[in-house]
Amino acid sequence: MLEAREIVLERRGRRLLDGIDIAIPSGLVTAIVGPNGAGKSMLLKVLAGELAPTAGSVQLDGKDLRTFSALALARRRAMVPQSTNLSFPFTVVEVVRLGASVPGFDGIKTRAHELADQALQCVGLEGFGARLYNELSGGEKQRVHIARALCQLDAAHRAEGETTVLMLDEPTSSLDLAHQVRVLDEARRQASIGRAVLLVIHDLNLAAAWADDIVLVSAGRIRARGKPAEIFDNGILSEAYGCAIQVNRTPAPGVPYMLPHLIAAASRRGEAG
């Protein structure tokens, strides 16, 4: 299990995270949601070991992340940030194979190619291997990096029972509807094979439909946590986001979906008329 205890993160005199306690279990998709500037991406970076907290600790299977070597950490978790810039003329398959190129991983040429091809298929990019990365659309580039993370986790050698974590920061932000479904279905598949999956995601409706567990962050603190049906409440969301939000339910199976409350906008239109 990945677990954070009393995390505080301060930068330039500002407290970005304050008293964060969170446990991310294996076998589930956990979604971190919240307004802009809430601290979601910072929290993900701390949980990934990319940022050291000012106070508190992050532990993976009971061991502090600060005691992991870079290689040991790469074997156990893969992180995809919101954006990644590559200046060199890599092909798609070369980018994906970077996930298997860590010293000590299963970097045998044939095996690495096989893992890269499998990862590309998982994100709907089969047949893209020979294309140049820099000629892809933003959404295609995003899926290439998700494939790289999958390749990394599949190539690493680990002891039986060790927790592995897939971390994705806004994985659907540049994707059309079909590819949003493809990527989030893959996130669920990763959870189904025993991995802990942690997403930062802005779209509350996608979080409601695909996540098992919701962590609502606002102003650097966890404001609520639980199943979508528990957390997605008019009052909780409206307070966290600072605007009126109406939670509705699909006829079956009753998954919550959220819309901005339109009463104020309708009133303004009436006044204008």
Features:
273 residues; alpha/beta; single chain; 10 helices; six-stranded mixed beta sheet; 12 strands; four-stranded antiparallel beta sheet
Number of helices: 10
Give the N-terminus to C-terminus distance in angstroms. Answer: 57 Å
Category from helices, strands and their pairing = alpha/beta
Helix content: 25-40%
Physical arrangement of strands within the biggest beta sheet? 6-7-8-3-9-10
Mean pLDDT: 90
> Quick one: overall form?
globular
Description of the molecule:
The chain has helices at 40-48, 70-76, 92-97, 109-122, 138-155, 177-192, 204-210, 228-231, 234-241, 263-272, and strands spanning 2-11, 14-24, 29-33, 55-60, 63-64, 77-80, 165-169, 196-200, 213-218, 221-226, 245-249, 256-260. It is of the alpha/beta class. The protein has a domain at 84-162. The strands form three sheets. A six-stranded mixed beta sheet has the order 6-7-8-3-9-10, sandwiched between helices. A four-stranded antiparallel beta sheet has the order 2-1-4-5, with helices on one face. A two-stranded antiparallel ribbon has the order 11-12. The N and C termini lie far apart (57 Å).
